[in-house]
């Protein structure tokens, strides 16, 4: 079996294990995928496997481990020059830092993610809306109420423009947050 199909197999098995709550099995599958990607010298697949392993760590409540793996993935995306994946990974790291109340690190990650999204004309509108929402949460955590309102308004508009039910739900949640901040 070649390395790429081994990586794909381990990733699929890891995702299935994660979906069904078998976190140790998922972690083992993703660790195998990381090893196989390193053997194949495929930094993008390695980064994807690291991000998957970070999600398992987050599912298990180990945010420090999740941040470690996420930061390794960020470095690989940076080296590979994959801007969209780098932006998404930075946004995820920003959310993890925000969860840990490491606000300076969250700000660095989220600002860089937004800059990358702004520089990418074909960036996923949903990904951009999610990054804007995360930045609104950061502004709130920093006590920057006006900035938070500005970002929440932007997020609301971006989600509403997407039009699908989940995005409309996010737009409604942003609207509620705006009302709470105004009141």
UniProtKB/TrEMBL annotation:
<protein>
    <submittedName>
        <fullName>Tetratricopeptide (TPR) repeat protein</fullName>
    </submittedName>
</protein>
<comment type="similarity">
    <text>Belongs to the Rap family.</text>
</comment>
<dbReference type="InterPro" id="IPR051476">
    <property type="entry name" value="Bac_ResReg_Asp_Phosphatase"/>
</dbReference>
<keyword id="KW-0802">TPR repeat</keyword>
<dbReference type="GO" id="GO:0005737">
    <property type="term" value="C:cytoplasm"/>
</dbReference>
<keyword id="KW-0677">Repeat</keyword>
<keyword id="KW-0963">Cytoplasm</keyword>
<dbReference type="InterPro" id="IPR011990">
    <property type="entry name" value="TPR-like_helical_dom_sf"/>
</dbReference>
